[in-house]
Each structure stands twice: as C-alpha cells, then as structure tokens.
Fold:
Amino acid sequence: MAGALALAASAVQASPALASPQRLGSRVLREGMSGKDVRTLQADLTQAGFKTPAVGFFGPITEGNVKRFERKYRLKVNGIVNSGFLSELQLVLASGAGATDATTGSGGTGLGVTKDPTSLIAPLGTPVVQDGGSQHLGERTLKQGMHGHDVRVLQGYLTIAGFPTSVDGQFGPATKVSVIGFQQAHGLEATGIVDYAESLVLRQAVAAALAGGAVSNATINSDGTATAPSGAPEIVQEVIAAANTIIDKPYIYGGGHASWNASGYDCSGSVSYALHGGNLLSSPEDSTGLESYGSPGPGKWITIYADSAHTWIVVAGIAFDTADYGGPNIPSGTGPRWRSNPTGNLADGGDYVVRHPSGL
Structure:
C-alpha cells in the first residue's frame, strides 16, 4: 500500500496539468519561470501598454517590459513581479491603461494613474472659483489625506515643475514631500499645504517649464567638477553631485555594473551612477536598456542619449560622458568627465534614442 501511495504521489508531481496551477499573485515571478500566471502577467502588461507575447514563459522580452513598467511608475527596477508590482499594475489596468480621470467634476475621486503629466496642462488658464470643489486646482486648500481631480492636477504640475510625483489623486506622504520641495525651491513657507496663492505660483512654474525658460546651464569648474545652476531642482543637484564623485575614475569596460562603487566606469555605468545619485535608477542599466528609460524626447533638465554602442547624459546643459567630444578633459585621462558640448557625440553617426526622466 505504501508503495502504491508513493507511486501515486510521484505521478501527481509529474503531471504538467497539476505542476503549474498558479494564479497571478500566488508567487513572485522572475526571468526563467513559466506557467499560467506568467501568461496572465504578459496579457496584463500588453493591456497596460507594454506589448508582451502571452507565451507563458518569463523570458528577456517579458523582463524588459516589467522593467519598463517599473521605471514608468517609479517602482524598484529589478525585473521581479511581486505584490507591490502587481498592485500598481492592477491600478493602471483599473484606470484604463493610461486614462487620466476615473471621474470628473467637483467631488470626483479621480483615482486613475496618469502616465504623462503634460496631459493635465489644459487647466493652466482655466478661471478658478474658490468654492471648495475639486474640479480645478485652487478651488480648495489641499493637504495630506485629501483626494480628487485637483490633487491629480497638483501631482502632475509638481512633476512638470521638476518634483516627480505619482499622479494617483491621493495626497499622501510622497505628495507632501514634493509640495514641501517645491515650496522651499520657490521661497514659500514649507507647510506641505497648497492654498490658492500657492497654486498660482505652481501654475506659473509649470508655464515656465513648458516654455523651457526656467533652465540655465550648469558650470564646469576648474577642477573638473560641475556646479548646478541656481534654482535647479534638488534631484538635478543630486545627479550632478553624484557625477562629481567619479570624475577621476578611468574608463573600464563593464565598470559600474557589478557594483555602484567601482574602480572605473564605462559609458552606461557612468550614466547609471549619476541617475542613481538622484534616486532615478535603482540598479545599473546598459546602453540598450537606457534606450527605453523614462519618457521619450529631450528633457527640461536631464536628457539621455543612448544606442547599442554608447550613451551619455546631459544635465542642465552640459554633458557627462566617457567620450571626449568637447572638453575640458579635467581631470586628465579616460573615463567619465563633464563636457561643455552637450551633443557632440551626435556627429559619430550613432543611432541614438533620446529619453529623459519623467518630469525633468
């Protein structure tokens, strides 16, 4: 009898039909895994705007799209599908895969996630009546714990103004941090509360950002370090400060990919290090990976140029690059250095993709 039970148990374990009964969310998924839950994940990614063949095997294409989703929605970029990833994915799907508002009008909850905050710029010139409603930013004073369409507009405007904020319609701790950062940068009292007067200051900042008039160039100093321009967002200052710490490192192929602290850096390792300094990247990316980073097109403060062979980053008008296309080459030698010519590498004939961190 014992032998028969063992044989039956072995048969059950060997049965393909019973080996992968997983429901999406019942286990953590990563590259190399397969099953019905992987197929469901792939279908959901496609519905969310990240076209993924529903083959049931978690391969490089699926991992790449998981990472693109993570970047887009400011999750930890590791290619792993855990409960946090699935919660964000379901929120995106519930909102219509990139829709703006779940509801509109005063009192609307507006809980959909907006992928592109510039889709919220229409209310810039809208007359605002302070009536306590939530249809337009400025109708009521906003603080932590509130929600609505006006909160979503606030979050979108903060992102455009250089303080990246998840646009979910909920005024949580992260939104308060962004509000305080904006207030400090514009000489306002850092209360984390947005009243009508401050909403006008924010609208003016957004208008200036969209016009491209708020950016001035960083300065390359005599020692090769760079100084951020006055008024640069804190994230931009952090990216520049991080880059400054590795300007004396040599060029080493693959450098900066096994560890953030390396004896030398290659082109993508340098760019990854600088972005990581601004909390814009959680793990190093190669140049091909950077082709899908963030949002398309040039940024207001930060722009990334990437193709399969090379990448560099432009921060506040100057380039951080391992290739010398416009000095000064200080310190001397190879490796990541600040360059005064931001787009000199375009002359090398590379097929560069232009990207930028969302909101910057």
Observations:
- The radius of gyration is 23 Å.
- Residues 219 and 227 are 5 Å apart (CA to CA).
